[in-house]
Amino acid sequence: MHADDALKQMLSLTPQCLAVDRLSETLTNSERQHVERCSRCQTELQLWREFDLAEPSADEGAAIQWIVAELARRNSPATEASSARRFGWLTPSVRRWAGAAASVAMLATFGYLAWDREPPVRERTNANETYRTESLQVVRPVGDLASAPEALEWVVVPGAVGYDVEVLEVDHTVLWRATSSAARIDLPPTLVRKLVPGKTILWQVRAHNAADRVIAQSGLERVRIELSK
Amino acid sequence: MGYAELSDEELLAEARRLTGPKREALVNELFSRHYQRVGRWCLRFTGHRESAADLAQDVFLKAHRHLDSFKATSRFSTWLYSIVRNESFNRLQRASPPTDSDEVLADVAALDEGPEELADRSERGQHVREFLAETLDRLERAVFVLHYGEEMPLEAVTRLLRLENTSGAKAYIVSARRKLAKATRRLRSRGEIL
Q1: CA nearest neighbour of A198 among A219, A229, A174
Q2: Looking at chain A, which residue has its C-alpha nearest residue B155?
Q3: Sequential DSSP letters for B134-185
Q4: Are residues B163 and B121 in the same domain?
Q5: Domain ranges of chain A
Q6: Which chain A residue shows the shortest CA-CA distance from B72?
Q7: Residue B53 has pLDDT above 90, yes or no
Q8: How far B18 CA lies from chain A's nearest CA (Å)?
């Protein structure tokens, strides 16, 4: 048996362990005796208490407000009802005609773009050109590095209450995301271990204010861990 | 009729007497009472508000789907917690399990065994849990069980348990392992094993 599995098995549930629905109840004597000796049940009780204590700390208040508002928005019956009303007239036959009309419109648009394009907008060529007020300046890491970075740092944005950070693969697959209230965040060891020599990643950070609007954002920063010499 | 004064369980009983949009309105009212609690857990678990909102949404969808299975033998919030907990733990990425399990097993004096003795480790699991309960303090125990038992990444443990020291859960793992090694040596010197 692999050591990970053996250790996991030792710490797994036993028939004597408390079921989750007993956590909030008054425990019997035998349950209490078991909990006093069982580190797993003690941990489960602690997690339950963490869940039951619904007081967010100061640094997570804004994020939780956003989540609550988002849940309310997603689960609003008014949204569902208006959506149903909006699309209720779309009977199957109307949908078929609408589908055909949409296909014709798409072909026409494609033809216009392919054969009658306007001249392209001139690309920005000056690397030093700065963005307006929305630019966020990163500090480190950038460019080629001798070893994997352990943290990301950027310059504080006035008015920002939090920063959303993303680390991405070069194909823009998100490797890791997190929110920080400071202008720095430690990378988790699981991610750092993946940053092997030769690996290239991208990262970016967005600052948001108390009204949860993005007020500044960095560009996509490229970081490459150099191959050992 | 005002529902604010009704308990969760009474509100759900009321919803079950109704059908259609009225029922859904009461269920929404019931769920919205727990948005903050579930959102807070999910935020600590994922560390990112958008992922947290997605996880919380899945929790409420599942709760909605299985609402009839709630038998009111426990508090509604406990039932909801069981869904939150299971949904969260099911999402843990198993790609990076703890890498030092061998060393930890050495700490708890289990590596001297042969293959046949490994088989009865599950029976000895209770002894190991008791040993942890006696040797470690509350936070060390919780960090140890979540990281090695549930394979939860240390950064998630740090957020979930609100550990505010500089190196978070890692410090508790280091301290726990030091205590375990010391306690094991003491047991061995007395000729005892786990």
Answers
A1: A229
A2: A188
A3: HHS-HHHHHHHIIIIIS---HHHHHHHTT--STTTHHHHHHHHHHHHHHHHH
A4: yes
A5: 25-54, 60-86, 138-225
A6: A21
A7: yes
A8: 16
**Residues 6 or more apart from B107 whose CB is under 8 A from it?**
B177, B180, B181, B184
What three-state secondary structure class fits A57? coil
The domain total for chain B is 2
Specify whether the CB–CB gap between B131 and B194 falls below 8 A.
Answer: yes
Which residue is listed with tokens 């909030």? A24
Same domain, B108 and B179: yes
Any CB–CB contact under 8 A between A174 and chain B?
no
Most B CBs within 10 Å, among A21, A27, A52, A71, to test the B interface? A71
Q: Closest partner residue to A71 among B60, B121, B146, by Cβ?
A: B60
pLDDT at A133: 45
Query: Is there a contact between B35 and A68 if contact means CB atoms under 8 Å apart?
Result: yes
Of B34, B67, B90, the last residue of a domain is B90
Do B152 and B185 have their domain in common?
yes
Asked whether the beta carbons of residue A8 and residue B118 sit closer than 8 angstroms, the reply is no
CATH topology of domain A138-225: Immunoglobulin-like (2.60.40)
The range of the structural domain enclosing residue B155 comes to 101-189
Q: Based on the domain organization, do B80 and B160 belong to the same domain? A: no
Q: A-contacting residues of B 28-87, CB under 8 Å? A: 28, 31-32, 35-44, 47-53, 56-57, 60, 73-75, 77-79, 81-82, 84-85
Q: Does A56 touch chain B (CB under 8 A)?
A: yes
Contacts with B136 from chain A: Cβ below 8 Å: 39
DSSP A135: B
The answer, for A7 touching chain B at a CB cutoff of 8 Å, is: yes
Question: Does residue B162 sit within a domain?
Answer: yes
Task: State yes or no: pLDDT of B132 exceeds 90.
Answer: no
B117 plus B156 within the same structural domain: yes
For the stretch A78-110, pLDDT in tens is 555 544 444 344 444 555 666 677 777 777 666
Report whether B141 contacts B101 (CB < 8 A): no
Are A175 and A191 a contacting pair, CB within 8 Å?
Answer: yes
Q: Do B123 and B110 contact (CB within 8 A), yes or no?
A: no
Domain-embedded: residue B3: no
ipTM of the complex as predicted: 0.78
Residues B12 and B83 in one domain: yes
Is the pTM for the entire model greater than 0.80?
no
